[in-house]
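Chain A, query sequence.
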Amino acid sequence: MREVEGIDVASPKGAIRSSRETSLLTTAKSTQALVMADDRNLTSRTYDRELALEIYQRLYGHADLMAVWLERISEA
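Chain A, predicted structure.
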């Protein structure tokens, strides 16, 4: 974000919000990315099997989102 847009962000959620503001992500994709960041935070602090299985079900969607995001960054 700093090199292309001149925006300095200090957190994953800040990067997601900045990506929405600069049109790297749509509003829908940025909402999905915020869920992905929350999922990451939950898995780093929780050892709940049911929660892990719920997040596991979302991993392919998260991977697809990351591919789209990377493509948009590469085009910028």
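Residues 49-75 form the longest helix (27 residues). The chain has a mean pLDDT of 90.
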